[in-house]
């Protein structure tokens, strides 16, 4: 069919895109209303778009689908969620598969069904729900419990270290478990014998 209107074709809907409604990305034109993440359908703009070949994504979905995987490669708040990546065609579940649940619940109440798969915080032993979960050392923690075991400093992904199931800030970890001696932060001067 000839292109009578003179505009480019939209990369999402293949209809003509006129100049007043055009957004360009990766050499392709889109309608403003078609400029959406291919995975979560969130509206995009020049600061939130990430292109991969002919596909466009928000930065969060792009990171989940094409970014590095594994511990230490968190993508901001996205790494704290319980997202399995199913909507991206990914299988992010690692480790052994969970055993199948019984077909008939032992306690049929709605509240009991919600409580089945709740993780426990290693520090306080209470349930950790998705809204308050931070992963550290391969375990779920409450945001308020995600602190250094020695100095109590609040931790984040850039300054956390773990040893034997406990969390430490990098300073306390170095003082207590790092190498000792001159030049390693332990001794600063050699004392003279009198």
TrEMBL record:
Gene3D superfamilies: Cysteine Rich Protein (2.10.110.10). Keywords: LIM domain, Metal-binding, Nucleus, Repeat, Zinc. It comes from the Eukaryota. Its main location: nucleus. It holds the Pfam family LIM. The keyword Nucleus applies. SUPFAM superfamilies: Glucocorticoid receptor-like (DNA-binding domain) (SSF57716). One of its GO terms (biological process) is muscle tissue development. One of its GO terms (cellular component) is Z disc. GO terms for molecular function: actinin binding; metal ion binding; structural constituent of muscle. The lineage of its organism: Eukaryota, Metazoa, Chordata, Craniata, Vertebrata. InterPro entries: Znf_LIM. Residues 8-68, 119-179 form the LIM zinc-binding domain. It is found in: Nucleus. It comes from Rhynochetos jubatus. This is CSRP3 protein. PROSITE patterns: LIM_DOMAIN_1, LIM_DOMAIN_2.
């Amino acid at each position: 069919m000839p292109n009578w209107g003179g505009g480019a074709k939209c990369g999402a809907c293949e209809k003509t895109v006129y100049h007043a409604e055009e957004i360009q990305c990766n050499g392709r034109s889109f309608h403003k209303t078609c400029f959406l993440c291919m995975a979560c359908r969130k509206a995009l703009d020049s600061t939130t778009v990430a292109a991969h070949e002919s596909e466009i994504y928000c930065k969060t979905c792009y990171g989940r689908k094409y970014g590095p995987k594994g511990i230490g490669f968190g993508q901001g708040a996205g790494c704290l969620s319980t997202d399995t990546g199913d909507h991206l065609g990914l299988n992010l579940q690692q480790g052994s598969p969970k055993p199948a649940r019984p077909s008939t619940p032992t306690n049929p109440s709605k509240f009991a069904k919600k409580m089945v798969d709740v993780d426990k915080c290693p520090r306080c032993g209470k349930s950790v729900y998705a809204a308050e979960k931070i992963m550290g050392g391969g375990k779920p923690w409450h945001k308020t419990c995600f602190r250094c075991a020695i100095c109590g400093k609040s931790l984040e992904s850039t300054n956390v270290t773990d040893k034997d199931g406990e969390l430490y800030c990098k300073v306390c970890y170095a003082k207590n478990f790092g190498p000792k001696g001159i030049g390693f932060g332990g001794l600063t001067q050699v004392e003279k014998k009198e």
